[in-house]
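A reminder from the course coordinator: this example appears on the midterm review sheet, so study it carefully.

Given structure:
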């Protein structure tokens, strides 16, 4: 397969050099062009037709948001990775970019006194994202579907069922837990507003994001959703009508006392190279709600959520996953589906209805 062709856009010559150096050691990635501002980026992208673009946010002449809008008009499926800063301003701009169609983002290294450390930090974040996004773009037949032994047929644009053919009791849903990563902010922005205020169960979410970003994301989701959405704090009551989003760099677990379930945050070891981790939340939900746990795995890179989905399944709960055709990256949901652990594989626009149906079900046998 030909190398993944990347265009690097940043107004800083130093950052351009750091990024190109970080990518140079990857045999399957080639930097084919650079640009110093948004206008130059549009010209370079139109001329070179790369597989992936890394795009700075703050630039002269035309900033990253303006360039992204123009690039999306001409190249709607081109993966664009924003290059952000770990500041409130940077987080706000990044969330704006994601809402305008950016595929993902990485944060610029901070407090790295050595050039080599900065290059290593960029390489660690950027290379896996480039590979995942380019891989999704290059997949042939993503909408034709494939059948996995013991699992669902994962069609790109249709609804399929997985474990529903197996006779097993259905327990009333007592909690909804959601995990997502790459493409997750936009997926959440589309899913949560479709959930009714009377959903009747608490909702807990892990989105792979750093601090500051999660607080701002929760604020945005709260404005659009009938449910109350906020970044989780240690000791928060877990109750219907409320969506608690795990804060960046903290695992979100559930604990109970005298029958009252509360959120518990900690900075335990990363799982799947992540903190917060979806697996941590899913396992913790099963500890409290057993087979009453309804898990949802949305678009994301890697396989965080796979172990947790297995725990949910073993307890008698159910897991719904987003399908490949509507996922930015079908890593996390694909891992669950291919393991035969998905009760349903759904396009994003049908996920809310499936969640509502599940929460309205009474105990039955399937």
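Designed residues:
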């Amino acid at each position: 397969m030909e190398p993944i062709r990347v265009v690097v856009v940043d107004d800083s010559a130093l950052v351009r050099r750091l990024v190109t150096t970080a990518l140079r050691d990857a045999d399957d990635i080639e930097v084919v062009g650079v640009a110093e501002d948004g206008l130059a980026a549009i010209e370079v992208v139109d001329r070179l037709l790369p597989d992936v673009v890394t795009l700075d946010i703050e630039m002269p002449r035309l900033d990253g948001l303006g360039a992204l809008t123009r690039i999306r008009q001409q190249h709607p499926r081109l993966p664009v990775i924003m290059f952000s800063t770990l500041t409130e301003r940077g987080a706000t701009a990044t969330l704006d970019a994601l809402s305008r169609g950016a595929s993902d983002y990485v944060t610029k290294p901070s407090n790295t006194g050595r050039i080599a450390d900065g290059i290593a930090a960029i390489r660690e974040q950027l290379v896996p994202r480039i590979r995942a996004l380019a891989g999704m773009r290059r997949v042939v037949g993503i909408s034709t579907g494939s059948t996995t032994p013991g699992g669902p047929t994962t069609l790109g644009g249709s609804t399929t069922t997985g474990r529903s053919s197996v006779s097993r009791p259905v327990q009333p849903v007592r909690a909804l837990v959601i995990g997502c990563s790459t493409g997750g902010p936009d997926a959440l922005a589309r899913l949560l507003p479709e959930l009714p205020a009377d959903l009747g169960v608490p909702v807990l979410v892990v989105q792979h994001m750093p601090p500051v970003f999660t607080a701002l994301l929760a604020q945005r989701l709260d404005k659009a959703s009938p449910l109350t959405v906020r970044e989780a704090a240690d000791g928060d009551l877990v109750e219907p009508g409320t969506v608690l989003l795990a804060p960046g760099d903290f695992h979100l677990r559930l604990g109970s006392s005298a029958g009252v379930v509360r959120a518990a945050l900690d900075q335990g070891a990363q799982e799947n190279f992540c903190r917060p981790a979806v697996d941590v939340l899913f396992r913790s939900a099963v500890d409290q709600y057993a087979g009453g746990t309804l898990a949802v795995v949305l678009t994301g890179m890697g396989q965080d959520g796979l172990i947790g989905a297995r725990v949910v399944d073993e307890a008698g709960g159910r897991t719904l996953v987003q399908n490949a055709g509507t996922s930015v990256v079908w890593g996390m949901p694909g891992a669950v589906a291919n393991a035969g652990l998905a009760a349903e594989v759904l396009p994003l626009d049908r996920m809310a209805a499936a969640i509502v149906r599940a929460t309205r079900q009474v105990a039955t046998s399937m």
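The radius of gyration is 21 Å. Confidence is low (pLDDT under 50) at residues 140-158.
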